[in-house]
Structure formats: structure tokens, C-alpha cells
Design a protein that fits this description.
InterPro entries: Acid_CoA_mut_C, Cbl-dep_enz_cat, Cobalamin-bd, Cobalamin-bd_sf, MeMalonylCoA_mutase_a/b_cat, MMCoA_mutase_a_cat. The chain has about 675 residues and is of the alpha/beta class. It contains 25 helices and 15 strands. Strand 11, helix 21 and strand 12 form a beta-alpha-beta unit.
């Protein structure tokens, strides 16, 4: 047999971080010992949104969905005994990306590393934060400036670093179609490249180097053919944009460079063992085609719809990649889809649709204008509503959820309390104590001087990275860095997209929505106070608002008056709004794991505000034991991902309102 040349495998990562820098460091070193070839750092929500662990909004969120990094000491511990000069590190960080990269650079310097040899990626795509993930801090203009300054700095000083990872991943999670995914991501890339070019910080002869460091972070869903064709379409459009718009002649600089985390939206709580084959199929979509193969892949774990994966679960996902790369013959062949007329037709369809949508965005003034107008958000909310409607009707089938629901007992989840990892509830207090000790022991004068210089730079037009580096070295904290910039730039609340979303489910006679509308109308009449009012609240820092938005849209379509103020609210703000708006029900949405802290706080504040009888319901990724505890504390109903029927959920909300107001049940609407 003739020996074939075998391609080098893609970078293999697992997205990881929890509790503390020390615990995460131990996890990273274990994963690297198992054959992982790159690191992918998950930061907790306070770190991502520029709050220190002792801020009121950080309550219940510290160390939940990632590692807390509050200052240089935390970053040292996070990468202790990991030689950064030899590592490829991806950091999922956006609004505070400049700050975290500065901390990373200083730790590398302390290790004796050559900064010019550091390789890795900072996500740093703020546009998708406004649209889907919700960890934005500053308004679009200043956010784009931070990104621009960071790109200019890295091209000059850390040339192997990818300073931005344009993310279509989270757009798909928010409901984007493949055309929207491509068009919105490409429009973001154009806005960023235009800003860098127009800033004058990079000489024109080096602009190809800027283009060469732009990378993408893409989602791969279970629709295998469509996803593979999407990647080819991405590459084709990027080739056109970089050559025609920016005049980049070097084909290596024009290469479409992307990493993948496969779809988490499609992972199910029901029959979660099915998630394994979903993950494998989604990985194949971005690895089988050599001409559109990902440069880095990270896979979720089978149990992420249940809670935080354990190290063993992450190992399973790593082994999935390793079996494909090392046991199969995939890497021995040229592109196996070349010449397929089916693939070519689908790619061309996606290219043309995406270019048309990119033109539409350009006519609005570009992606930033389309964000501020609410156009992009309303389009995503609408697309997501349409997808949910297809699932509820059975048109889009999900095995174990809306078809083939019968199942044998699952040994993987026989003991739900051990099927996921939990964070020690004392962890947050320990992190806060460590933060206070750090502040007490630093050179306070140097820290305040560094913050003063940062504000001065932000008020002018100089590159902010040098001032940020001095803040890192001076012992400034994450919250202090972000608040200094908030003082200059202000904050931004992104459009919710709810009011502009069209009707996705019909309410014709005999339909489930028509029946629920009748229940809403009858209950409103029984209460004699006009329309039923539902407050949908997002307490804490969890910015994943897709579920809350879909509940708000369907409740609106069912006849409710909906109060939805968007993300990042304190329990106090939610209760104040509930009382002021005289609502009939409060619905809380939390996916970050902070429900155990925040929901009881809301309940207690409702009691103190004289509104103990208003039912409070909760939705999110909530383990069974936690759900029981919440009901014991007074929550009227708990909904988790297995409750996929939104119209049914709205109907149950009406039932809880009737129960709370001592009205007879309505089995069949009158």
C-alpha cells in the first residue's frame, strides 16, 4: 500500500474554567496531560462584564460559568506551571478583552517569555454581545475603539496573536439562519477592518497583517450538509471581501481562519445520551471537508443541558476528537466533496443570500447602525421564534423531545446530583476575601495613578493598551479598570428585539395558542383589571436572553401585557418594577447557575414589598434538587429545557395566576 501524507490535526480544546484560578489551573494541566493541544479559557460572568466579585450584580455568579480573574495575581495562578510561550490559548472574553490580554501578557513576561511568540485568541467580538450573549459593557463606538486599539497593538507587538474572533457561533444560538450567520459575521468583520484602517494606527503596507490575524468562531449544528456548505460559503465570501474591498494580494493573508464550538442550542435535557451523536455529527461538518476544515475545535459535553460538565465529561468530548483524528483515515485525503454539484449549488445559494443581506446592512450604515436601530436583534428574535414554532408543531423533529420520547432508564443520569459538577457555595465568599486581601496589599498610590492615566487616555485618542498594561502591573482590579472606562464611555443597554418580532405562531380557532388566548382573556375578565401583566426578568449577569425573549414574545401573542427590560438587573430592580407595574406574575430566567442565590432574594423582596401573592416562576438550566428547593422556597413553577412547548408554558403561567388569585381552574377555555 502506498504511504499517504497525513495532514496535521486541528487544535483540540475543551472550554473550561470554574470556581477559582487554582482549581482551573489544575483542570487545565490535567486536560493537557490527556492530549489536549490548546487551552480555551471560560471566564465567569463578573470577569466578562467588568465587575469585581464583591459587586452587588456579581452575587451568585462568581466562579459559576467560568473562572474569576480579578487581577494579576489571579492570572498568575491560572497559568502557573503552564509555559505560555509554548501554549496556544483561546480566551472567551469580549468587553474586557483588552484587560485580560494585558494580564496575560504581564504573566508571560514574568515567566520570561518572548511576547512576540505568544499565540492564541481573544474573542473580542462585541457586536454579537449586543445581539445574543449579553456581556457588553460600553456603547458601540467606544467598544469598537477598544477593539481597534487592541488589534493595532497586537499586530505591532504580539504578531502571532489573533486579537479578534468574529463570532457567528452565538448568532446561531440566538436563532440565526445560515444566511444571517454569515452576513452578520462578515458585516462585523468589515466594520472592524474599516475602523482599523481609518484609525491610521497601522501603516497601509502592513494592513495585510491585520487581515491575516482576523479569525472567526463558528457554530456547527446538526444539519450536516448545510453546515459544511456554510463553511465553504464563509471562505468564498471572505476571499472576495479581503481581495476586493481591502486589496490584499497575499493568498495566505486572505485565508479564512476559523475555530468551532459545535452547537449547544440543540443539546437536550430529555434523553441527554442522544447529545453524543449530535456532537459527533456536528464535528464532522467542520472536519470532513479539507478545503473548509476548522483550525481549532472544542466540543461541548453530553450533559451541558443539565448543568456544569465534570472533568470526565470533558474528557469524553476530547476523546471524540482524538478518535476521528488519530484512528480514522480522514487526514490522509484531499477534499472529498470537491466536484459535488449538490454541494456547489447549496454553497452558491448561501453566498448569494448572504451578500444580499450584507448589502442591506451596508445601506443602513453598517453593522453598528444596524445594532443600534434594533434591526439585527429583531431579525434574530424572529428567526428563533420561527424555529421554536417548527419544533412545537413537530415540523422540526428532535429525537427524545418531540418524537421517540419513550426511553429505558438512563444509567448516566440515574443519580442526577452526581451527573454534573457543582460549585461549592462557599467559593464566592473565599474569592471575595482574597480580592480584599489583594487590594489591601498593593501599592494603592500606583494603582490610583494608573487608573487616572487610563481615564485620561480614554478621554483622548491615544491607544489604550499601554495604559491598560500599567493598570495590570499596578494591581488594578477588573472592576476598577472597567469602571474607569464606564466613567468616560458610559454604559449601553442593547435593544431587546421583542417589540419588533412578528407573530410566529398562528392563533386560529382550534390551535393551542387560541386556547391559551381564551384562558388569558377569561382570567383577565375574572380579575377585572384589564389585561394580564407578566414581568419577564433577567436577574444577575446572565446575558443569554434567548429563552426570556421567546417567552416574552409568545406571552405577548397570547394577550399578555409584557414588561421586559432586558438583561442584567438586580433582584431589587425586578421587584420594584413588578410592584410599580402591578403585574400578575413574575417570570425569572437564569441559565448561569445563580438561581440558588438570586431567586430566594427576589421572593423575600416580594414579601417585604407587600406582594407575596404574586406568583414567581423560574426557567433555566436548573438541576432537579435545586428545582425542588426553589419550589419549597415559594416558587410557583420551575421550567427547564425539557419544557420546550412555549405555548404550553404560557398556559401554565395563566394557571398559576388563577391559583394565586383563588380562581377556579380552567381545564378548557370558556
Amino acid at each position: 500500500m502506498t504511504e499517504r501524507h497525513k495532514d496535521r490535526p486541528w487544535l483540540m480544546r475543551t472550554y473550561a474554567g470554574h470556581s477559582t484560578a487554582e482549581a482551573s489551573n489544575a483542570l487545565y494541566r490535567r486536560n493537557l496531560a490527556k492530549g489536549q493541544t490548546g487551552l480555551s479559557v471560560a471566564f465567569d460572568l463578573p470577569t466578562q462584564t467588568g465587575y469585581d466579585p464583591d459587586h452587588v450584580l456579581a452575587r451568585g455568579e462568581v466562579g459559576r460559568v467560568g473562572v474569576p480573574v480579578s487581577h494579576l495575581g489571579d492570572m498568575r495562578r491560572l497559568f502557573q506551571d503552564i509555559p505560555l510561550e509554548q501554549m496556544n490559548t483561546s480566551m472567551t472574553i469580549n468587553a474586557t478583552a483588552m484587560w485580560l490580554l494585558a494580564l496575560y501578557e504581564v504573566v508571560a513576561e514574568e515567566q520570561g517569555a518572548d511576547i512576540g511568540k505568544l499565540s492564541g485568541t481573544t474573542q473580542n467580538d462585541i457586536v454579537k454581545e449586543y445581539l445574543s450573549r449579553g456581556t457588553h459593557v460600553f456603547p458601540p463606538g467606544p467598544s469598537l475603539r477598544l477593539t481597534t486599539d487592541m488589534i493595532a497593538y497586537t499586530v505591532a507587538h504580539i504578531p502571532k496573536w489573533n486579537p479578534i474572533n468574529i463570532c457567528s457561533y452565538h448568532l446561531q444560538e440566538a436563532g440565526a439562519t445560515p444566511v444571517q450567520e454569515i452576513a452578520y459575521a462578515m458585516s462585523t468583520a468589515i466594520a472592524v477592518l474599516d475602523a482599523v484602517r481609518d484609525s491610521g494606527q497601522v501603516p497601509s503596507e502592513k494592513f495585510g497583517d491585520v487581515v491575516a490575524r482576523i479569525s472567526f468562531f463558528v457554530n456547527a449544528g446538526v444539519r450536516f450538509i448545510e453546515e459544511m456548505c456554510k463553511m465553504r460559503a464563509f471562505g468564498r465570501i471572505w476571499e472576495q471581501v479581503t481581495r476586493e474591498r481591502y486589496g490584499v494580494e497575499n493568498p495566505k493573508q486572505r485565508r479564512f481562519r476559523y475555530g468551532v464550538q459545535v452547537n449547544s442550542l440543540g443539546l437536550t435535557e430529555a434523553q441527554p445520551e442522544n447529545n453524543v451523536q449530535r456532537i459527533v455529527l456536528e464535528m464532522l461538518a467542520v472536519t470532513l471537508s479539507k478545503d473548509a476544515r476548522a483550525r481549532a475545535v472544542q466540543l461541548p459535553a453530553w450533559n451541558e443541558a443539565l448543568g456544569l460538565p465534570r472533568p470526565w465529561d470533558q474528557q469524553w468530548s476530547l476523546r471524540i476528537q482524538q478518535v476521528l483524528a488519530h484512528e480514522s483515515d480522514l487526514l490522509e485525503y484531499e477534499d472529498i466533496f470537491a466536484g459535488s454539484h449538490v454541494v456547489e449549488a447549496k454553497v452558491e445559494e448561501l453566498v448569494q443570500g448572504s451578500l444580499a443581506e450584507m448589502d442591506r446592512i451596508a445601506e443602513m450604515g453598517g453593522v453598528m447602525a444596524a445594532v443600534e436601530s434594533g434591526y439585527l436583534k429583531s431579525q434574530l428574535v424572529s428567526s428563533h421564534a420561527e424555529r421554536r414554532a417548527r419544533i412545537e408543531s413537530g415540523e422540526e423533529k428532535i429525537v427524545g423531545v418531540n418524537c421517540y420520547e419513550s426511553t429505558e432508564p438512563n444509567p448516566l443520569t440515574a443519580d442526577l446530583d452526581t451527573a454534573i459538577m457543582t460549585v461549592d457555595p462557599d467559593n464566592e465568599a473565599n474569592v471575595v476575601r482574597a480580592l480584599h486581601a489583594w487590594r489591601d496589599n498593593r501599592d494603592e498610590g500606583r494603582a490610583q495613578e494608573a487608573l487616572s492615566e487610563l481615564k485620561k487616555a480614554a478621554a483622548g485618542d491615544t491607544n489604550l493598551f499601554a495604559a491598560t498594561l500599567e493598570c495590570a502591573r499596578a494591581g488594578v482590579t477588573t472592576g476598577e479598570w472597567a469602571w474607569a472606562l464606564r466613567d468616560v464611555f458610559g454604559e449601553f443597554r442593547a435593544p431587546t428585539g421583542v417589540s419588533g418580532a412578528p407573530l410566529a405562531v398562528t392563533a386560529e380557532a382550534g390551535t393551542p395558542l387560541a386556547e391559551v388566548r381564551a384562558k388569558v382573556e377569561r382570567t383577565a375578565a375574572d380579575l377585572g383589571g384589564g389585561r394580564l401583566r407578566l414581568l419577564v426578568g433577567k436577574p444577575g449577569l446572565d446575558g443569554h436572553s434567548n429563552g426570556a425573549e421567546q417567552i416574552a414574545v409568545r406571552a405577548r401573542d397570547a394577550g399578555f401585557e409584557v414588561v421586559y427590560q432586558g438583561i442584567r438587573l438586580t433582584p431589587e430592580q425586578i421587584v420594584t418594577a413588578a410592584v410599580a407595574e402591578d403585574v400578575h406574575c413574575v417570570g425569572l430566567s437564569i441559565l448561569s447557575g445563580s438561581h440558588a442565590e438570586l431567586v430566594p432574594d427576589v421572593l423575600e423582596r416580594m414579601r417585604r414589598s407587600g406582594a407575596p401573592d404574586i406568583p414567581v416562576i423560574v426557567g433555566g438550566i436548573i438541576p432537579a434538587a435545586d428545582a425542588a428547593a426553589l419550589r419549597e422556597a415559594g416558587v410557583a413553577a420551575v421550567f427547564t429545557p425539557k419544557d420546550f412547548g412555549i405555548t404550553e408554558i404560557i398556559g401554565r403561567i395563566v394557571d398559576e395566576i388563577r391559583t394565586a388569585n383563588k380562581l377556579d381552574p380552567l381545564e378548557v377555555p370558556a
